């Protein structure tokens, strides 16, 4: 028989342990920053939240925190509107609120649609600022927010749902 390479078990275990630690550190950092790989809908939603928070701060309100759970609820409503399963309205809002997995004491919702795919975040926020009811939602005493978007293959529009909540 020829020479066979020898893999020292100690060395292999050490390498696996180090790689596991590196992976755990990466996942921990991603969780801490609430970042990571995001969908186009979430990317636009986060941009809308950034603009919303800038508006809130200018009006002496604290910024809202991104809620992944509320984002998912908002995204689903935007998808339903885009597929015309629901009208372009707030129907089903109470159902959406019940699906938030934690207790809240106040909630609000803004919706928006546009045929322009570029600049959706700026368009939506400016549209809401110029609407009394939507502006009031943006300046209410909420501390959580999630915004989901969807592009319709039916009518070519982009639908946006912004849900605010105040956690108990």
UniProtKB/TrEMBL annotation:
In this chain the SCP domain maps to: 49-164
Q: Name one Pfam family in it.
A: CAP
SUPFAM superfamilies in the cross-refs: PR-1-like
Query: According to the lineage, what is the superkingdom?
Result: Eukaryota
Q: What is this protein called?
A: Putative CAP domain
Organism the protein comes from: Streblomastix strix
